[in-house]
Design brief:
Monooxygenase, Jelly Rolls, four-stranded antiparallel beta sheet, 23 helices, 21 strands, binds 2-oxoglutaric acid, JmjC_dom, JmjC domain-containing protein, JMJD6_ArgDemeth/LysHydrox, F-box_dom
Length: 541
């Protein structure tokens, strides 16, 4: 029997889950759904049930352990607090790890019992990823039922990304977030069904995959990931200086004080945006959402890859937003504008909570970009075009990039490697009122350190026109070009439009580009007289 009941205690009302492994639901699953694949191997699940676990501090103060083992409970809380301190967990970290521990901890368990394996029965030989892939094929009701079958299934079936996918697939952007994705799903389809706001703690469950996922959702950015700031900063430079010192040599720069005339810098707060945008929907990952609903989600969410609002049509949808900012004078040349309505997407409003962001990528169509923060702050890491960042694996044609699941995972596993990397990256924190210039071809990763709002635009100027045309002409343009439905013809359309608007420009710039390349390949005086390998003078008679 699975039930939810209220028990009066002298202290407080205590909701209790009673899980009886002979439950009707579990039996139904065993007989009907599992076709005998799952063995009920942990019939007497000793569930340590933790209550009121919104945050670990509150947990220490309020949690009651059913099965009343107070000594054990205190130990658990102390451990949780220590882990939190050591790992810098977010103050709002959810303890809904369900007790999952990294696999290595199994070696400290004298019984070597992993309830992952006993709970999964014959499926235990599958990898965690595969189990989750299979569970991803189930609909919500079946996932809920399966979660009552064993401790192992309880944890797997409560894996938040499974419920996130279900919500996004079925509700699209029309969901009201309720603290976690599982509750959101239940709230949307079974509003009367009681859902606990906390997870059951399962003892002796070890899985690196699930632990890592929980950790990445709850880990704070460490101070040592933020302290390096080696970008060149400039305030009040002229356009010529910008072109000569940064755009021409294709180097990043952080520009201060150039958003002072932006109405959006002052005006764009949540109330203003919600009022101006009303019921209009914006692109949020794979779905479209009203701003008000998105803010409700982003206020509560703690997940590895928070949904990120990234909308290329914001100024068409809400023209006032387009009027609330001006392109900084350094970026006024915008050659794609010759294509009129046929130009690829080029400007985005970006809104996201702390922890959201963009994992390593190179900007589309070999364009350069600027990114202006109007609220919050963003940590940037940039690598030059010839240095692929550690942990990032582009496909040979560059059309796809494999990288860690989340940005925080990249920091955990690869940031340290950058200290000895071929070329150390450019790093900075870009704050409200500041603009970063992202030169074409540079790899970059961005993580929001607080709730943030930004505008970004990608552009083609004379400095990168030749390079963009070359990119658009590549044989696999149909997979590489983005932001337009007409990928294959974009090159010819753009070239013709430039010829029509700026006759002779392409030839002139191509010549200049060839001269520049020849200059770069030409050895310097010292290179011509030294043997660069041996580092000694080369001389001849
Ligand atoms: O998340 C961000 O603000 C960065 C956006 C970005 O990298 C891009 O638009 O290419």
């Amino acid at each position: 029997m699975l039930c939810f009941m209220e028990k009066k205690s002298t202290q407080m009302q205590v909701p209790i889950w009673i899980i009886d492994q002979q439950s009707r639901l579990a039996n139904a699953f065993r007989q009907g759904t599992s076709r005998g694949a799952v063995e009920m191997s942990d019939e007497h699940a000793e569930l340590q049930i933790l209550l009121s676990v919104k945050n670990l501090k509150a947990l220490a103060a309020q949690t009651i352990l059913l099965n009343f083992n107070n000594a054990g409970f205190q130990e658990l809380v102390i451990q949780a607090a220590k882990t939190k301190e050591k790992k810098c967990l977010k103050s709002s970290a959810q303890s809904d790890s369900y007790g999952v521990q990294p696999l290595g901890n199994l070696y400290f368990n004298p019984s070597s019992h992993n309830s992952r394996n006993t709970g999964l029965g014959n499926l235990q030989t599958l990898t965690d990823e595969l189990v989750l892939d299979i569970l991803g094929l189930l609909e919500g009701t079946h996932l809920g039922i399966l979660s009552t079958v064993s401790k192992g299934f309880y944890i797997f079936c409560n894996h938040e990304p499974l419920w996130r996918n279900l919500v996004l697939e079925t509700c699209k952007g029309g969901f009201l977030f309720k603290g976690c994705w599982r509750s959101t799903f239940v709230g949307a389809y079974r509003p009367s069904f009681p859902v606990l706001s906390f997870g059951l703690k399962v003892r002796d469950f070890y899985s690196d995959y699930l632990f890592q996922s929980w950790l990445c959702a709850n880990l704070e950015m460490k101070p040592e990931w933020l302290e390096r700031d080696n970008i060149v900063r400039r305030k009040g430079i002229s356009l010529d200086e910008f072109v000569m010192d940064f755009e021409e040599p294709n180097k990043p720069v952080l520009l201060e004080g150039c958003l002072e005339n932006w109405p959006g810098l002052e005006k764009w707060n949540r109330d203003y945006l919600i009022e101006k945008c009303g019921d209009v929907k914006f692109s949020v990952g794979p779905v479209e959402m009203k701003l008000e609903d998105y803010f409700k989600y982003s206020d509560q969410v703690r997940e590895e890859r928070p949904l990120y609002l990234f909308d290329p049509k914001f100024a068409e949808k809400i023209p006032q937003l387009g009027k609330d900012y001006d392109v900084p004078m350094y970026f006024n040349e915008d050659l794609f504008s010759v294509l009129g309505n046929e130009r690829p997407d080029y400007r985005w409003i970006i809104i996201g909570p702390a922890g959201s962001g963009s994992s390593f990528h190179i900007d589309p169509n070999s364009t350069s970009a600027w990114n202006a923060v109007t609220k919050g702050s963003k940590k940037w890491i940039l690598f030059p075009p010839d240095v692929v960042p550690p942990g990032v694996h582009p496909s040979p044609d560059g059309a796809e990039v494999a990288s860690p699941v989340s940005i925080i995972e990249w920091f955990m596993n690869f940031y340290n490697a950058t200290k000895n990397w071929k070329k150390r990256p450019i790093e900075c924190v870009c704050k409200a009122g500041e603009v970063i210039f992202v030169p074409n071809g540079w790899w970059h990763l961005v993580i929001n350190l607080e709730d943030s709002i930004a505008i970004t635009q990608n552009f083609v100027s004379r400095r990168n026109l030749v390079n963009v045309l070359e990119f658009l002409k590549k044989p696999n343009a149909c997979t590489l070009v983005s932001g337009t439905s007409d990928r294959v013809n974009l090159h010819d359309k753009f070239k013709n439009a430039i010829e029509a608007h700026l006759p002779g420009t392409i030839d002139e710039l191509t010549l200049k580009d060839e001269e520049k390349k020849a200059q770069q390949n030409k050895p310097s005086f010292w290179e011509s007289v030294t043997d660069s390998n041996a580092g000694v003078f080369r001389f001849s008679f």
